[in-house]
Amino acid sequence: MTFISIREVAPRDGLQNEDPIPADGKVELIDALSGTGVRRIEAVSFVHPKAIPQMADADEVWSRITRNPDVRYSALIPNTRGAQRALAAGLREIEVVVSASDTHNRRNLNRTTDESLDDIAGLIPLVHAAGATLEVIVATSFGCPFEGDISPTRVAEIVARVRADGADRIAFGDTTGMATPRRVRDLLSEVRPDLLHFHDTRGTGLANIVTALELGIVEFDASAGGLGGCPYAPGASGNVATEEVVHMLHDMGYDTGIDLDRLIATAELAERLVGRRLTSGVLRAGPRTRLV
Amino acid sequence: MTFISIREVAPRDGLQNEDPIPADGKVELIDALSGTGVRRIEAVSFVHPKAIPQMADADEVWSRITRNPDVRYSALIPNTRGAQRALAAGLREIEVVVSASDTHNRRNLNRTTDESLDDIAGLIPLVHAAGATLEVIVATSFGCPFEGDISPTRVAEIVARVRADGADRIAFGDTTGMATPRRVRDLLSEVRPDLLHFHDTRGTGLANIVTALELGIVEFDASAGGLGGCPYAPGASGNVATEEVVHMLHDMGYDTGIDLDRLIATAELAERLVGRRLTSGVLRAGPRTRLV
């Protein structure tokens, strides 16, 4: 049975795109997630509190969670200051984002893609010196909400650059849900990531994952309850919902290590914490094995 | 470019699972759909008004729509009386449902699957004598909300029976969204339908369609806006949303004949008519080509 590695991103990518919730709720969510059997959790991001108020209490949250020795925790950082904070806090899996689209990079990080790539080149020795790893997440890999289609060649150039600079891992982010099975095939025939991060903004989230599985990808991000919206389309879905991904993978014969019932209970907790109805189908209807 | 034939089912399967709307709205919806380029519309069902009050005005709706000569219209019927009404009204594409699950058939039609199959055998000569065709939709083909998994062999037996009795076409219905890509492969390796009808109850709708495309299926049902819920899971999605299906198919290089912008406008109309927010991602976020 093939093992598919799910990284749960609700505490960071999910909550970053919701109204702020207290640290208590974040700690409760992370600890509930670490009890589902999931092996990796993107727990916090160390960003300036004015930029992302939702993550202002990252140090507190990280210090208060109960560390599960079977779980690898990671943090997103935007710059050297963030990396220093994350490393000082004891994180050993660090993620940084750069957009394949220059316009999106400017909007998101207030600098050009090339400037971000230079920053990343400077970060890598710092991270490695602390015995940590750096994953580069290439945002807008499947399309940019400002520029439209992104050429797979462009993504491949970024990957070549950061690999040459010493990046340990590469992820492709479908930042605003522009991927389709065709775009997945087009990009992956040009360059392959370690991990794929899909959004379900236009309904293609699971179709994209199935296509990626056929191409041999075995690591995916997902967010409990589909937590997190799309900043450019109010009311639209964000990340693929972990329970929908796991439900489908298990029925297809894949192993994720995750207990689906506990995961659904955790998605229910996520829904209570953010105080809005989440649209995840498996959260609403239960697994296909739940009979009337 | 491969042509994929979409049958739009919002006016019947969609509205049948919503609170009743006036005939005016139904006529407006069907006429808007017939202007999108879609070639087939499941327009009405001729059922007893006490059983399905939402379809009580089927004769009126059917008589008032503007028939587009490029569109094939069909009607669902539950029994001989319904078939007589549909044929008298001028319909020439008739659909009838039978469930692969006996429990679901009893709940839905108040008789056993075998009794329904006998009824269908009796219906076929009547339909053929009027120069019309009969499609048999095998409900719960991918699982039953009461009985659980349905054996592909069971579905194949039903198909063999109705084909022997003279049915013109076969559709498989994923009545409560229990299909996954694995279930699609399992069933289609045993027996193939002319058309597939998927629900998106658990997020797998488009993944199932991609899998079916790989297996050579070229006809699918879909409902504008994803109209229609799941009767066994309040708040959960029902039919796959036509604009999500068409959006993905077009980006994958398939032709559907449908103008996506007009279809989205029609899904917006459907949303106004039923007076509730529909969850279709392409309705909420627009197509991937719509830039910020």
Task: Please characterize this protein's 3D structure.
2 copies of one chain form a homodimer. Chain A has a single domain, classed as Aldolase class I (TIM Barrel). Helix content of chain A is 41%, strand content 14%. Chain A is of the alpha/beta class. Chain A has helices at residues 10-16, 23-34, 58-64, 80-88, 102-109, 113-129, 152-164, 181-188, 205-214, 242-251, 260-274, 281-285, and strands spanning 5-8, 40-45, 72-76, 93-99, 133-139, 169-173, 195-197, 219-222. The first copy, chain A, has an 8-stranded parallel sheet. The two termini of chain A are 30 Å apart. Chain A is globular and about 55 Å long. Chain A has 12 helices and 8 strands. At the A-B interface, helix 8, helix 9, helix 10 and helix 12 of A face helix 8, helix 9, helix 10 and helix 12 of B.
**Rg from alpha-carbon coordinates of chain A:** 18 Å
How many β-strand runs of chain A?
Answer: 8
Shape call of chain A: globular
Percent in helix of chain A: 40-55%
Question: Could you report the average pLDDT of chain A, rounded to the nearest whole number?
Answer: 96
Number of domains of chain A: 1
CATH superfamily of chain A: Aldolase class I
Kindly, what is the distance between the CA atoms of the first and last residues of chain A, rounded to a whole number of angstroms? Answer: 30 Å
What CATH calls the topology of chain A is: TIM Barrel
Largest interface here, residues on each chain? A-B, 50 and 50 residues
What structural class do helix, strand and pairing data of chain A support? alpha/beta
Q: Main β-sheet of chain A: number of strands, strand sense, barrel status? A: 8 strands, parallel
The low-pLDDT segments of chain A are none
- Contiguous helical run count of chain A: 12
Note the run of SSEs of chain A as H and E. EHHEHEHEHHEHEHEHEHHH
Report the oligomer: homodimer
Strand percentage of chain A, roughly? 5-15%
GO molecular function (chains A, B): hydroxymethylglutaryl-CoA lyase activity; metal ion binding
Keywords (chains A, B): Lyase, Metal-binding
Protein name (chains A, B): Hydroxymethylglutaryl-CoA lyase
Domain Pyruvate carboxyltransferase (chains A, B): 4-264
